[in-house]
Structure formats: structure tokens, C-alpha cells
Write a structure and sequence with these properties.
Residues 359-546 form the FtsK domain. The chain crosses the membrane at residues 32-49, 69-86, 93-116, 136-157. ATP binds at residues 376-383. By secondary structure, the protein is of the alpha/beta class. Among the domains are: 22-155, no CATH class; 184-325, Threonyl-tRNA Synthetase, Chain A, domain 2 (2-Layer Sandwich), CATH 3.30.980; 629-700, Arc Repressor Mutant, subunit A, CATH 1.10.10.10. The protein is 42% helix and 12% strand. The strands form three sheets. Strands 9-8-16-15-14-10-13-12-11 form a nine-stranded mixed beta sheet. Strands 2-4-5-7-6 form a five-stranded mixed beta sheet. A hairpin with a 3-residue loop joins strand 4 (265-272) and strand 5.
Length: 700
């Protein structure tokens, strides 16, 4: 008995796991049914004109007795059924579709019989008996309700009432302080909203075309006291539409591929973004998400698209998202996003990030971050993101509310911002001066904490409310390539960055760090622990992605501004297509600010503090020399004496004589070289010593 049961279970298991392939594809079957229904409708129409032969005449006489004047509902119903079979993706709707069609026919015949007695045939007469208990008017209302319901059931259509969207007018200015003068109004052209019809797959697939349109707006840009803000007309705001390919076919491919691996799923909505299209699905109960994510390469092969990214689950939803690259990407221009009212209503440090996979504009605020790390390989859009961030802030702030410190070791990316009134100092291109800037920032942070303590204020916002006549501006430090600084002054730079990241938020100092080499030597554990807001653009490996985001995914991005964004509010990476601004538009904005604000710093009194450096007025390069820190090492004089006596200079010599580590010995050599005490290094040879006896002012 047990052997028979075992064989039976084995046969059932075998046939369940390996079903035979159907001879006809489901789509082919539906097409055949649609053609059959079209043929029946054609025969019924011809029969009414007595052009279908004797059999057609028999059909006409039979249905004319049965349905009366409602005979013509029959070909109409069959035409509707043919359309449903041709357009619907659902494979289990046939019974409910026929039920709806039958109800529609019955209710239609009943309505004919009630309005025109004895004209609805035998079937109509049966339904027309409703008039006896409900009366003429009520029975008509009941039958019409049944007709509407049956029509919705047949086509599986919901009733949606959309409220007309009123054109929005934004007359409030972009937030700047001390706004006076006449506004410079820039009216954005009205854009038409692009929408695409919803497709139905399983229960419901709604395709949401990304909202790449602007509502009509008027953004008022006003002049600050002595400062003229750039108009939005300098930026292009054209809107492009992406091409996602055949959505229905891709959804079917995803469904069939997963089912072939034993993973039944129910397809959900489709979201078209600028760069990718996200297909959502709900797996059956008991299916592990790891089984779906493990099929990344198989789905990529089936869709003939690479790379694809699987988000399991989508934050806030019980769905899995499969992100497939679009055939043609849409360019997200910075100008089109800056026209949104959300941008003008954001804080002084609010800026544009881009659009998400739903096409929604994404704005964020540096004050809430309060620091940000950007990582991306060459060509991923890292520099363009920095430009869009800076331009967004320049549109919202005058030099009285925001000061910039730009550190550009590559010397070419940020030089376009030189001579702007917002700059604390000229663009820093030398690693040594960059280290001096960090030391100045730490001193400025400590000075501001003293001011906050004396004023009894918790942060810079409350301080500026108490003293609106002498507000403290925000200071944003932007580093275009952190790796160069870390390789030159690793320990010092890391210590400065960590200290600023830990303490500077309340005083209005913020860091934007970017690197194209996110190794653990550059993005150290201390830096990651204190900078929770991170952006990963396309990265070469999963290791780099985990270094930045603590999760994989950035290696599957498409480049060109495609990014994953992690903030303190959401630890789950969010995919965003970054805002694009070309170099010529950056140059237009910076040239406008320079030409219209040449004498900005001569029009008012500058606040000079105890250290002689004004956080509002610009700092010369000579002003940074006092922060170079060369004189801080107490062993400097002893090191000069050692090399002058030995008549040679090397790190190993200083290590032995002074009993210090290599890093400190090398730093002492750098200081002596900068002061002209020793010559430059020549490989393994000792450095040349230029002094022969010690003095009290070496190299000085």
C-alpha cells in the first residue's frame, strides 16, 4: 500500500513540476477568439439585411423573436468582446467578461421593452416585468444602473473623476534676505502634460508616464540690497520624453521568466522614469525574495537589456521592482525643475537633485543632511551634479546668506566660479592650502560657537533671528576630489573633516565631498560614520558601492547622472536621475553674477572678527598662510639642527634622531622644503641641505 502511494505521489509531483508546453500561445488563443467574435458579428449584421443566405435568415428570425428590436445589440456585444480579447492582457477574465456581456444584453432588452412595449422580444418582456413592482421611472433607473455596471464589468474599467488642475502662480521670491527693489519676473512657458494610457496585466497594470511637464508658473526673482540675482531665463527648461519600448511585451517576458523558474507573480503598475522603467510585481505567498534577486542575469538575458536592477522590496510597498533601462533616455534639465514651486519654497540651502523613477521632481536641503558625500567614476556625472548644486544655491542666496569655499585639486572643474562675490577665497587648487582652509573652518566654527553661547542661541537660525542686522552666513565647503587631499595629508584631512562633520551643523558650516575613488583609504570609517547622506553614481565594482552605500547597486547604474541617494531620513537607496546643466549655462549664470555685482563688497561694512578674517568679506590667499600650520610642530627647530649637523636630510634620519614616526618625519621634511631649508627629494638619495648653521628663524 505504501509503495502504491509513493508511486502515485511521485507521478503527481513529476507531472506538476514538468507540465507539457501548450501547443498554442495564450495570446494566439485570444486572437483566434477575437476573430471568431468578429466573424459572428459580421454574420449577424449581414443576416439583418438578408444577405447571409438561408441560415442567416433563420438566425435573424430566431433572434428577432427572442430579442425583438434588441437584435442589434448582439453584433455590438460581439464586437466589444472581440476588442476586449485583442487589447486585454489578463488571462482569467473570460467568465466575468461573458457575464458582463450577458447582463448588458438583458438590461438593454429590458430597457427597450419598458420604453417601447412589446419591442424587446421574449427576453425583454421578462425583464420588463420590473415595471409592475417598481413603476415606470424607477424601473428605467434600475435597468440603466445594471447597464452601466455590466459595461464596466465587461471592459473592466474603473470610474475615475479627475479634478481639473488649476494653473499655479508662484509670486513669492526665491528665499533671500533683505529683499528690496523691483522684482525681475521670468514667466516659464506653459508645458503640456504628457500622459500614457494604463495597460492591464493580471489584476491591474497602470502605466504612469513620468511627469516631465511644468505647470504654468511665474517665479519672481528679486534683487537683494546691492546684489542682483540671475534670472531663470538663463537656463533652458525644455522637456524630453523617454522611450521605454514595448511595455506589455516586457511585462509578459518578466512574468513568464519568473514562472519558468517556479516563481508565480502578479504584475503591478509600470512607472516610466527618465532613465529606467520600473515594472512592479507581487510574488505569491511563500516565495523568498532572494529567489527573485538571484535571477538578475536571467531576467537581463530574457529582456535583452543590461544592466537591470531589482529592488526587493520597494520601500513602503509590498512589491518588488525591476528597473529596466529605457530605449531612449530623457534629459532632465535643471531649469525645468527650478521652475517648480517646491524649489522656491525650500530653505536657503535647498537644491535640485533630479527626478525619481516615477518622474517626480526631487528636492533636498543641505541643512537637513547636513553634509554629503558624492562618489562616482569618470563620466558618471559627478561634476555636473556639483554644478547643478552650486547653481541652485546661487539662485537662492546672496553673498550675505551663503559663502562658498571651493577646493578643486584637478584645477579645471570649479575654476569657472572664480571671482564670484559668494567665494570666501579664490578657488583652492593646492592641497596644502586646502588643509589650511579646513583649519580656518574649524577656527571659524569654534568662534561661531562662542557667539551662539553668548547670544543664548541653539543654532545659526535662531541666532540670525535675534540679530537680523548682522546675520551669520552659511558656509559651504565643496571638495571636488577628496582622494588627492587624503593621499597628500590623509590623517590631517580626515581629522578636520570628521571634526567639522561632527560639530559644524549648528554653526552653519556644511561639507560636500566628492571622489571618483571611493576606496576605504579615502572614504574611511570615521568619515562614513559622520556623513550619513551619500550619493553613489555609477561605480566600477560592487565593493565600491558597498564602501559608499553599505549596499550593492551602484555598479548597475547607467551613468550620465543616474544615481542612488541615501539620506538620514531613508537608509534605503533611492534611484534618481540627476539634473543636467551644460557648461555654457553655468558660464552664463556666473558671468551674470560677476557683471552685475562687481562692487558688492564695497557697498557695505564688513564684519571683521578677532582673527582678522571676515566670514562675510573675502579672504586673500595670504590670509590663509597663517593657517598652514608649519610652525605648529615643536620639533621643527630640532629637525633643522639635525639636518644641518648631518649635512643631509632624510625621513629615516629624522626618525632615528628625533624618535618619531615616518609620517611626522616626512611632514617635517615638507615644511623644511617649503621654507628653503632642504632641497626636493630625488628618489632614494638624501635631500640636499642649503644651510650650514642653525639660526632662530629658519627659512623665515
Amino acid at each position: 500500500m505504501s509503495k502504491k502511494n509513493h508511486r502515485k505521489k511521485y507521478r503527481e509531483k513529476w507531472f506538476e513540476e514538468k507540465p507539457k508546453e501548450p501547443r498554442l500561445h495564450p495570446e494566439t488563443k485570444k486572437s483566434i477568439w477575437a476573430i471568431v467574435f468578429l466573424g459572428i458579428a459580421a454574420v449577424l449584421i449581414l443576416a439583418s439585411f438578408k444577405s447571409a443566405g438561408p441560415f442567416g435568415n433563420f438566425l435573424y428570425l430566431f433572434f428577432e423573436k427572442l430579442f425583438g428590436r434588441g437584435y442589434y445589440l448582439l453584433p455590438a456585444i460581439f464586437l466589444v468582446l472581440a476588442g476586449v480579447f485583442l487589447t486585454s492582457e489578463r488571462q482569467r477574465i473570460y467568465q466575468i467578461t461573458f457575464l458582463g456581456a450577458g447582463l448588458f444584453t438583458l438590461a438593454g432588452l429590458g430597457l427597450i421593452d419598458i420604453i417601447f412595449p412589446d419591442r424587446g422580444g421574449w427576453v425583454g418582456r421578462i425583464v420588463g416585468f420590473l415595471e409592475i413592482p417598481f413603476g415606470y421611472t424607477a424601473s428605467i433607473i434600475i435597468v440603466i444602473i445594471v447597464i452601466i455596471i455590466s459595461f464596466l464589468v465587461t471592459l473592466n474599467l474603473p470610474i475615475k473623476i479627475k479634478k481639473p488642475q488649476k494653473a499655479l502662480e508662484v509670486t513669492e521670491p526665491l528665499k533671500v534676505s533683505e529683499v528690496v527693489g523691483s522684482p525681475v519676473s521670468v514667466a516659464e512657458p506653459t508645458q503640456t502634460k504628457a500622459e500614457s494610457k494604463a495597460e492591464e496585466i493580471q489584476e491591474k497594470i497602470q502605466e504612469k508616464i513620468a511627469r516631465f511637464s511644468n505647470r504654468p508658473k511665474t517665479v519672481a526673482l528679486k534683487t537683494l540690497k546691492g546684489y542682483v540675482a540671475p534670472p531663470l531665463g538663463l537656463l533652458r527648461s525644455s522637456i524630453e520624453k523617454p522611450t521605454a519600448g514595448d511595455l506589455r511585451a516586457n511585462a509578459n517576458i518578466i512574468k513568464r521568466t519568473l514562472e519558468s523558474f517556479g516563481i508565480p507573480v502578479e504584475m503591478g503598475e509600470i512607472n516610466i522614469g527618465p532613465k529606467v522603467t520600473r515594472y512592479t510585481l507581487k510574488p505569491a505567498e511563500g516565495i523568498k525574495l532572494s529567489r527573485i534577486t538571484a535571477l538578475n542575469q536571467d531576467l537581463s538575458l530574457a529582456l535583452a537589456s543590461h544592466p537591470i536592477r531589482i529592488e526587493a522590496p520597494i520601500p513602503g510597498k509590498s512589491l518588488v521592482g525591476i528597473e529596466v533601462p529605457n530605449k531612449v533616455s530623457a534629459l532632465v534639465r535643471l531649469g525645468s525643475l527650478m521652475a517648480y514651486p517646491e524649489f522656491s519654497s525650500a530653505g536657503l540651502l535647498g537644491f535640485v537633485l533630479g527626478r525619481d523613477v516615477n518622474g517626480e521632481p526631487i528636492f533636498t536641503d543641505i541643512d537637513k543632511m547636513p553634509h554629503m558625500l558624492i562618489a562616482g567614476s569618470t563620466g558618471s556625472g559627478k561634476s555636473i551634479m556639483i554644478h547643478s548644486l552650486l547653481i541652485s544655491l546661487l539662485y537662492k542666496n546672496s553673498p550675505a546668506t551663503l559663502r562658498l569655499i571651493l577646493i578643486d585639486p584637478k584645477r579645471v572643474e570649479l575654476s569657472i566660479y572664480n571671482n564670484l562675490p559668494h567665494l570666501v577665497s579664490p578657488v583652492i587648487t593646492e592641497s596644502k592650502k586646502a588643509l589650511a582652509v579646513f583649519r580656518w573652518a574649524i577656527e571659524e566654527m569654534e568662534r561661531r560657537y562662542e557667539l551662539l553661547l553668548q547670544a543664548g542661541s541653539r543654532d545659526i537660525q535662531s541666532y540670525n533671528k535675534k540679530y537680523p542686522e548682522e546675520p551669520l552666513p552659511y558656509i559651504l565647503i565643496v571638495v571636488d576630489e577628496l582622494a588627492d587631499l587624503m593621499f597628500s595629508y590623509g590623517r590631517d584631512v580626515e581629522g578636520s573633516v570628521v571634526r567639522l562633520a561632527q560639530m559644524a551643523r549648528a554653526t552653519g558650516l556644511h561639507l560636500i565631498l566628492s571622489t571618483q575613488r571611493p576606496s576605504v583609504e579615502v572614504v574611511t570609517g570615521l568619515i562614513k560614520a559622520n556623513i550619513t547622506c551619500r550619493v553613489a553614481l555609477q561605480l566600477p565594482s560592487q565593493v565600491d558601492s558597498r564602501t559608499v552605500l553599505d549596499s550593492a547597486g551602484a555598479e548597475k547604474l547607467l551613468g550620465g547622472g543616474d544615481m542612488l541617494f541615501v539620506s538620514s531620513e531613508s537608509s534605503k537607496p533611492k534611484r534618481i536621475q540627476g539634473a543636467y546643466i551644460p557648461e555654457e549655462e553655468v558660464r552664463k549664470v556666473t558671468d551674470f553674477i560677476r557683471e552685475n555685482n562687481k562692487d558688492f563688497w564695497e557697498q557695505g561694512e564688513q564684519l571683521v572678527f578677532e582673527n582678522g578674517v571676515s566670514p562675510v568679506g573675502p579672504i586673500s590667499e595670504d590670509g590663509l598662510d597663517k593657517y598652514s600650520g608649519d610652525e605648529e610642530d615643536e620639533l621643527y627647530e630640532e629637525a633643522v639642527r639635525v639636518v644641518s649637523e648631518a649635512k643631509k636630510a632624510s625621513a629615516s634620519l629624522l626618525q632615528r634622531r628625533l624618535k618619531v614616526g615616518y609620517a611626522r618625519a616626512a611632514r617635517l621634511l615638507d615644511i623644511m622644503e617649503a621654507r628653503g631649508v632642504v632641497g626636493p627629494g630625488e628618489g632614494a638619495k638624501p635631500r640636499e641641505v642649503f644651510i650650514k648653521e642653525t639660526t632662530n628663524n629658519y627659512g623665515g
